[in-house]
Amino acid sequence: MAKKEKKYLPPSGAGLVRYFEEETKGPKLSPEQVVIMTVILAVFCIALRFSYS
Question: Membrane-spanning residues where (predicted)?
């Protein structure tokens, strides 16, 4: 049996993790979706704050 050759990147990464190899579970959100959800949450919190005054 032949051994598999592992390919290594040059050592210019300075110890940084290569994230493209890691697959994470969970929802995939675009930056636009995150901004929209943040604005909606902020408006909701402001509305709640002024509704109990």
Answer: 34-52
